[in-house]
Amino acid sequence: MAAVTKSDAVTTPNPCILDAKTIDWSADMEKRLPRMVLRGLKPARKLPVFVIGLSHTRSVYDVLKDDPDPRFGVLLIPKGKRSRLDEISPRLLSRFEPEIAVSMIGGNEHNLLGLIEQPEPFDFEEPSVPIMFEDRRIVPRAQVRAMLNLMLTGMLSKVRLLKRFYGKPTVHVASPPPIPDNEHLAQHLGAFAKSAGLEPRFTPAPIRLKLYRMGNQIVKEMCEAEGIHFIGPMEEALDENGFLAAPYRKADPTHANARYGAHVLDALRAYADAVSAGGAPHPARVTPPLESTS
Fold first, then answer.
1. For the chain, what are the domain ranges?
2. For the CA atoms of the chain, what is the radius of gyration?
3. Other CB atoms closer than 10 Å to residue 7's CB: what's the count?
4. Tell me: domain 6-276, CATH 3.40.50.1110, correct?
5. I need a surface site. Which of 20, 100, 171, 272 has the fewest CB within 10 A?
6. Spatial distance between the Cα atoms of 124 and 110, rounded to a whole number of angstroms
7. How far apart (Å, rounded) are the C-alpha atoms in residues 54 and 175?
8. pLDDT digits over 68-125, tens only?
9. Sign of CA dihedral 188, 113, 57, 54
10. What CA–CA distances, in Å, run from 152 to 24, 26, 156?
11. Contacts of 7 by beta carbon, 8 Å cutoff, 6+ apart
12. CA 168, CA 65: separation in Å to the nearest integer?
């Protein structure tokens, strides 16, 4: 496949940016054949690496938008849908024929549970983050895990669908870790503005990191059971405690920027090269535990 240059991308459609809209046919074709038949006649687009996901996909989308790589096609499910997860369906997936399928689906469940302080502040034990706030209600670890597991149900079903539908090497990329800076959060509340109220109170950063790592563990266990390769947070983009470092944050409370996305693409290229060479996938990234400051 010929290389795509930046100058080409200015005058021609970017081949890396995939359309999430339904297929449009000519009026003549619409009159002669029903839409169900027309969908079957549309050939699937062949892709070396197909990346699909929701808002966290934006980090790689923004890289490929400005610097196309013909190995990748990225499909960012747009806002405005009643349920963006529901858009990830066999009907949509049938439009593409990838050699490698990549999920960047979900990833905000830990934020929904723990970004904004709960009415009754809580904490729980998480071995990877050995910090406890004894002045808060200590919730059993199993109870927190059960809640996260429930919240992750829809997302996990879509990652499974990706693997089972294509039957190809499949990767799930974890969302970026929490942002520890409360000042940044207060200035960029984004979608959390309504729930934050007039005087936002944020769950302490170590607890948010616990929720993030527990959620990642749940997803990683499912990936291992399904034969899906799991890629954790980009080590190059973490601070000394495992949080998202300042240069990699977007101007919102939860997402990483294109600089982070560039590292994700590098990790996916390394995985694709390993698959092409017939070698074993790279092991999942392991983040060192947060050291106690007490």
1. 6-276
2. 20
3. 8
4. yes
5. 20
6. 14
7. 10
8. 999 999 999 877 555 678 889 888 898 899 999 999 999 989 999 998 888 899 999 9
9. negative
10. 34, 40, 6
11. none
12. 25
